[in-house]
Amino acid sequence: MIEMRDIWKTYPNGVMAINGMNLSVDKGEFVYVVGPSGAGKSTFIKLIYREEKPTKGKVYVDKKDLSSMKEKHVPYLRRSIGVVFQDFKLLPSLSVFENVSFALEVIEEDTAKIRQRVMRTLETVQLKNKARFKPHELSGGEQQRVAIARAIVNNPSVLIADEPTGNLDPETSWEIMNILEEVNAHGTTIVMATHNREIVNTMRKRVIAIDGGRIARDEIRGDYGYES
Ligand SMILES: Nc1ncnc2c1ncn2[C@@H]1O[C@H](COP(=O)(O)OP(=O)(O)OP(=O)(O)O)[C@@H](O)[C@H]1O
């Protein structure tokens, strides 16, 4: 599903963020990416959804070669990879419904079908009753649930999350994790960068620890590990 072959990433300012990484993630896996601040976690995540390109090496997602993908094909890729961020990144002037439908890939679907699909997705994140609300009328946890709905509305094969619980209290963080577990149970591969020790140590999924731009540890039922 996701494959990295001898990946190196040096930013234009000379910072070497990823230093020779090899990795393979299978369909349906749930992977936590942990590591100290500045270790390269966000860079790693950005390479998977082609926000950044590697300086050297190959990244494949769903057998597509991201390293040589033309810029004009990137929007299509983004429909098969859902992305969730720490700061939600919702469009403030649009309603919950519009934030989700805006992301929907529309191919000859009528309005009723679009509505049905968006509402079904909002049901998954338990926000059907707030479809008309604007983001500023929602709690942080609700906003993140809208962001998840937006990320999954196209049925992506991969969901990438960069610190999705970073702005949320512990209880709300667990609500988000339950939703991500459900999305994963329906077959979506999930890669999630996090600093949340409690979540990683409770869920016991695959853990990839990054340090100094390299994979320091890759365990099937791993824990958070290092002190931070
Ligand atoms: N756009 C950029 N230009 C130049 N250097 C960058 C850029 N983005 C990140 N870096 C540098 O690359 C290194 C890795 O950063 P990255 O954001 O991937 O780490 P991280 O593990 O996600 O950190 P954190 O946990 O603090 O978010 C750092 O030294 C950072 O300063």
From TrEMBL:
It comes from the Bacteria. One of its GO terms (cellular component) is plasma membrane. One of its GO terms (molecular function) is ATP hydrolysis activity. One of its GO terms (biological process) is cell division. Keywords: ATP-binding, Cell cycle, Cell division, Cell membrane, Membrane, Nucleotide-binding, Transport. InterPro entries: AAA+_ATPase, ABC_transporter-like_ATP-bd, ABC_transporter-like_CS, ABC_transpr_LolD-like, Cell_div_FtsE, P-loop_NTPase. It holds the Pfam family ABC_tran. It is a peripheral membrane protein. Its main location: membrane. The keyword ATP-binding applies. Gene3D superfamilies: P-loop containing nucleotide triphosphate hydrolases (3.40.50.300). The keyword Cell division applies. Residues 2-228 form the ABC transporter domain. It is found in: Cell membrane. Homodimer. Forms a membrane-associated complex with FtsX. PANTHER family: CELL DIVISION ATP-BINDING PROTEIN FTSE, IMPORT ATP-BINDING PROTEIN. NCBIfam families: FtsE. Belongs to the ABC transporter superfamily. Part of the ABC transporter FtsEX involved in cellular division. This is Cell division ATP-binding protein FtsE. It comes from Texcoconibacillus texcoconensis. The gene is ftsE.
